[in-house]
Each structure stands twice: as structure tokens, then as C-alpha cells.
């Protein structure tokens, strides 16, 4: 059987989300570069792997997947007994699993749309020779602040967003946070004590460091 392959860009937050899960599981894999600047993700053969033309795509033997959060959930379940457990400590406890699932939804629908816009404006536009729109930054920072206020309250009760152990809920935040820590938006994390501690904890993990190399 063929091994694990990730088709994407090492700079892409979505690709990094999958790479993080693989590193946490200590799994061997091949990263097949998809050159985004050249639009390779919008052409064949990539479109045969993801018809929506977004990285990453994923193969584990004969299984072919796309959508980074679906891929990380597959990795967490398929390799549950290997490396870091990315599910609740008692993954068979439906209530605990549901709490993690809420966190996954919040990250995908409340945190990431705003944080990704901020990363686009302040980091990725530079790659394409474009200019940051400070009005957009100000608008999106106001939205992110509200999300982080909710996180601050949650993290006063628990070490991590889904409880006392690191899970996919936390992992999914890491790639965009890493980019934002290199921008003025960093202040939104550092001025909230519990959020600041959480960010420091999740970004210092060995897997988090590996995706920066």
C-alpha cells in the first residue's frame, strides 16, 4: 500500500493544519508541493484530487480526501493509538466529544474567517506584492477581539479550549496564530492573560515548531 501523501503548500495554513496532525502522530508522509503562485491548485492534476481547487488534498493508501479539518479528524481517529491523542481523553464519551466538536465549529466559523483575513492582509498580500488595507485590518481586529474575549472566559475554566487536554480544537488554531504573532495583531492575544498562556502553550509544541522549519 502507498504511504501518506499531502498535496499542498508548506506556507498554506490549511496545509499546515494537516501537517501538524501528522507530526503530532509521528507519522511518515510525503509533502507534494502545489505551487499556488502558478495556480497549480486550479488546474489538473490537482483538480482531480479536490474539484474545488483548494489545498490541501490527502492520500492514505487508496483513500483520497480533501478539506483540511476532515483530514485531521480522519488522522485523529485512524491513528488514535499512535503519538499524541488529538481527541478527548475519553473519546467514547459523547458529551466530551460534543464539547470538542463545538470547539471545532467555533474555530471554523467564528475564529478562522476573521483570523485568515488578517493573515491575508498583513502577511500573504506581501507575497503577491499587494498593499495591506488598514481599514480592513481594523474592522477584522474588532471582530477577532470579540472571539478572543469568549476564549479568555473559556480558558479561565480549562487549560485548553475543549477541556484539560490538547485536542484538534486547539491544533486547528495554530497555523494562522503563528502567522498573526508576526504582525501587530499579536497584541490581541498578548493582552488577554489566559489566551496568551494558551497561545504560548500550543505554539511551543514540537509539532508546531516543525511546521515552521
Automatic annotation (TrEMBL):
Residue stretches making up the GST C-terminal domain: 93-213
Keywords tagged on the record: Cytoplasm, Detoxification, Transferase
GST N-terminal domain mapped to chain residues: 2-83
One Gene Ontology cellular component annotation held by this UniProt entry: cytosol
InterPro entries recorded: Glutathione-S-Trfase_C-like, Glutathione-S-Trfase_C_sf, Glutathione_S-Trfase, Glutathione_S-Trfase_N, GST_C, GST_Phi_C, Thioredoxin-like_sf
Keyword Lipoprotein: no
GO biological process, one term: toxin catabolic process
A UniProt-annotated Pfam family: GST_C
Main location: cytoplasm
Enzyme Commission number: 2.5.1.18
Reaction catalysed by this enzyme: RX + glutathione = an S-substituted glutathione + a halide anion + H(+)
Localisation: Cytoplasm, Cytosol
GO molecular function, one term: glutathione binding
Family: Belongs to the GST superfamily. Phi family.
Protein name: glutathione transferase
